[in-house]
Amino acid sequence: MRWLPRRKKDRAGTLRTATSDDVDHLSQFVKSRTGVEAYIEPRTAVTEATVVLVASTGEWTRRRIDGAEAARSFSKKHAIPLYDAGVVGYPKRMREWTALRKQNGQNGPPRAGPSV
User: Fold this and answer.
1) Which terminus has fewer CB within 10 Å in the chain: N or C?
2) Residue 83: is it exposed, middle or buried by C-beta count within 10 angstroms (0-12/13-18/19+)?
3) Residue range 73-82: average pLDDT?
4) What is the CA radius of gyration of the chain?
5) Stretch 69-77: mean pLDDT, rounded?
6) b/e string for 43-60 if b means 16 or more Cβ within 10 A?
7) How many angstroms separate the CA atoms of 60 and 109, rounded?
8) Which residues, 6 or more positions from 51, have their beta carbon under 8 angstroms from its beta carbon?
9) CB atoms closer than 10 angstroms to residue 113
10) What residues form DSSP beta bridges with 99?
11) Strand 50-54 versus strand 37-41 pairing type
12) For residues 104 and 93, which has the higher predicted lDDT (pLDDT)?
């Protein structure tokens, strides 16, 4: 049996960047909810910048995005405000929504469907 080399995207130390699925998920979230705001999170050692979208209900989702410029472009395209999470923090409604989910025994990541 011969060892096959790992694909580049699977290599240790390779920065994980956004995919079209990430951007599609973010777009669908914006289109299916009201009062959505975007919060950019900084790049880490293993992941490109991420964006957290928070709806008026507090429901939220997080996906990778290809840097701050891509986040600005996305928020402009979808006409939603963009904030720096490191500067302004996250909205109270997001924390309340997460706490309510935990109280109801929903400890996994938020589901991709409509608001809970």
Assistant:
1) N
2) middle
3) 97
4) 16
5) 96
6) eeeeebbbbbbbbeebbb
7) 10
8) 26, 38, 39, 40, 41, 62, 63, 65, 71, 74
9) 8
10) none
11) antiparallel
12) 93
Average pLDDT, the chain: 85
Domain boundaries along the sequence of the chain: 15-103
pLDDT on residue 73: 96
Q: Tell me which H or E stretch contains 37.
A: strand 37-41
Q: How many residues does the chain have?
A: 116
Residue with tokens 């694909």: 7
Question: What are the tokens at 48?
Answer: 């490109």
Residue 40: what residue type? I
Alpha helices in 8-112 (DSSP H): 20-32, 67-77, 85-88, 92-103
In this prediction, residue 43 carries a pLDDT of: 84
The burial of 11, by beta-carbon neighbours within 10 Å (0-12 exposed, 13-18 middle, 19 or more buried), is given as exposed
